[in-house]
Design goal:
Radius of gyration: 15 Å
Distance between the termini: 18 Å
Shape: globular
Strand content: 5-15%
Low-confidence stretches: 1-12, 127-141
Number of strands: 4
Structural class: alpha+beta
Helix content: 40-55%
Oligomer: single chain
Length: about 140
């Protein structure tokens, strides 16, 4: 992932939109989708369920199973961000969180950001229940 703090390498007017591939069967993923969609966006976020026919049609080069396992963000310029890079890209797109994303992507804070994202994935794992059939299992991080 290109560092978000490098405006010449990330953004610099070249990214006009992001497509966020998220696991629509996961309650945590759906909550994150609603939260992101409800924020002011400097870079428009379009949400497409990972593994869906639309996602497969639009991004035939992406592994549908991998996009269900890890949040995936595709920029309109072709860059693909996965897992922690995808979460940081989403924050970078938001008006009130761009600075946070830039700080978290620095070498000093990136390990902490990765730990926070892993912790969120662990919380999702601990709160899931196969009894509910919500589709959120170890494939969704």
């Amino acid at each position: 992932m290109t560092e978000l703090t490098d405006p010449a390498g990330f953004g610099a007017g070249r990214i006009g939109a992001f497509t966020v591939l998220y696991n629509a069967g996961c309650p945590l993923c759906r909550a994150a989708h609603r939260w992101l969609a409800g924020r002011a966006q400097l870079v428009p976020l379009e949400f497409v369920p990972a593994g869906s026919p639309q996602a497969r049609r639009r991004f035939p080069g992406l592994d549908p199973a991998a996009t269900l396992r890890d949040l995936t963000v595709v920029a309109d310029n072709g860059l693909v961000y996965v897992s922690d890079g995808a979460w940081l890209a989403c924050l970078w797109a938001l008006a009130d969180y761009r600075g946070v994303a830039e700080r978290l992507s620095t070498p000093a804070l990136l390990p902490t950001a990765r730990q926070l994202i892993a912790a969120a994935a662990a919380v999702r794992q601990s709160t899931r229940s196969d009894d509910y059939g919500d589709g959120c299992d170890d494939r969704c991080r």
